[in-house]
Amino acid sequence: MSIKKIELRKPLLVNGVERRELTYDIEEITIGRIAQAEAYKSKVGGTALAAKISLAQTDYPLQICIGMQAIMALNPEICEEDLSRIKGHDLTKLATIGASFFIEPEDTVEVNIYEKPQEDMQNTTTVQ
């Protein structure tokens, strides 16, 4: 597990309890949670947002919704309606969580040590 937390500038009231920080884990995101994020994005954005086709890496509403899913995965007492009350810079923290889901961690990137290096042609001259 890669549990992390965000600290909120403005506390969030959830079930009568004030939350100043929220834990999350993007490793808990499943295909089902992505589908839930897409569905919630369509619900709050209406048909105009739902009909828009975009790349996940630049779909900020989707990134926010995926960030919400990463939080809800560890905090089952929190629902989408609770997280939809987050505003301002705290909202950008949700987008950052969601965006990080689409970036492969450096420790998982494969490097082919047998790949032949490209020839450096920058410092060559031609004699005529």
Describe this structure in words.
Helices cover 42% and strands 15% of the residues. The protein has a two-stranded antiparallel sheet. It is α+β, with helices and mostly antiparallel strands and 128 residues long. The relative contact order is 0.17. The N and C termini lie far apart (63 Å). Helix 1 (31-51) runs antiparallel to helix 2 and helix 2 (60-74) crosses helix 4.
Helices and strands, in N-to-C order? EEHHHH
Described by strand count, sense and barrel closure, the largest sheet is:
2 strands, antiparallel
Q: How many angstroms does the end-to-end distance come to?
A: 63 Å
User: With helices defined by DSSP (H or I, 4 residues minimum), what is the helix count?
Assistant: 4
Low-confidence runs = none
Mean pLDDT: 85
What is the structural class? alpha+beta
Strands of the biggest beta sheet: in what spatial order? Answer: 1-2
Helix content: 40-55%
Q: State the shape.
A: globular
Residues in β-strands, percent = 5-15%
List the helices and strands and how they pair.
Elements: E1 4-14, E2 17-24, H1 31-51, H2 60-74, H3 80-83, H4 88-101
Antiparallel strand pairs: 1-2
Helix pairs in contact: 1-2, 2-4
